[in-house]
Amino acid sequence: MFDLSISMWENFSMLIPSRNCKSWKGYILLNAYNVYIEISCPNIPLLDNLKVQIPELEAFHFHQFDLKETVEIVKQKTHSLPEFLKELIQALVKVWKQDTSINLTNFNYIFDDKFHSVIQEVNLYGQYVHTIDENLKHITFNVLDMCKHSHFIKIFIPDEYPMIKKQPLRFETMVPSVSLNLFLKVNTILNLFETFKNVVNELSNFWNVHSEIISTCNTIGSYTFKDVNYRIPIDSHVCVEVEVNPLKPLNCPKFRLHGLPAAIEKFHKRLNEINPILIWRTINSFKENILNVFEVPTLPSQYEEEKPEHYVTSQNDLNCCCICYDQLDMAIKNQTKLCDNEKCDALYHMSCICEWLLNSGSTPMFEHLQGKCPQCEKDMLVALENFDLIKT
Length: 392
Description:
The chain is α+β, with helices and mostly antiparallel strands. It has helices spanning 2-11, 55-60, 67-76, 81-98, 113-123, 177-180, 189-202, 204-216, 261-273, 276-279, 286-294, 315-318, 350-359; strands spanning 15-17, 23-30, 33-40, 51-53, 129-132, 138-144, 150-156, 171-173, 229-235, 238-243, 254-259, 336-338, 347-349, 368-372, 379-383.
């Protein structure tokens, strides 16, 4: 089906398929005129029960011409939808030229302005189209950066388009917020996609740094291409939040330490004694730079395994989340989740443990998540009712 869509797009770029590619609608070119056509092919790729409607041609009342009969004749000698359409167009052009009773220049074509305008714009960047809603409510483009990362933008098309071109178009995409201002006043599909494509190209270094951080620095949590802040563990109970400038991603980022005051004291002292900008080297990897700035031999795994005897110390006394290491506000009920293991008693922000379980493959059932405690791996059940609470 994918090969069929590609072949149809290459040969008939002004035809839009339904989700299952069993129907198509749009424009074909006849004698330099765009003519609207609707195609139904329920048994695709077979041409059985194929039906074609061309309202403009039916209005011409050609002498001795029957569209249904022509469709049956053409489909008997063809084996694919693109091949069928090529043959059908040739047959229609021949009939059109032979019937001298039709004065094309006086015919008043009625076009769907939205459809025609959208297809004309999309046709210029057809190779980047990922999906098109069959009712043209939205269109999604896919752009690959230099390292073959896929970047998507979904553009919502108003019913009044193109008459509403004075207003910016709505869209969804994953890019850093610093780049979003470039999109906010764009009011055509073509210009919005071109802006998106330029942003993807301009942020090539950022996408590389993003991938490097995710793959080498044991980051805490999950991240998308819009994120510029990353949490990296540098000690068993300390992590550093780094903020990367997407416009200058190779430069030294900003740092913010998280963890118990006693545990982060030596790292605060280190940052006060040095100038991280002078230590940061663009020739080094991101991980190497983090190791050098904080003078640590290696980055610990995301959650360091504790020995059973260490579990006796209640995490309630530590008063911090065992995932992000931030302080907990014990006065707020239901904001924390306590491990049921009496030898563990680890505490978590509700949002942290829910995100951890979701990233571990847990599927919400009856408003609960089931998984294992990140500290002791005992089975645990977490209610989703407070997942939207902000971490404190």
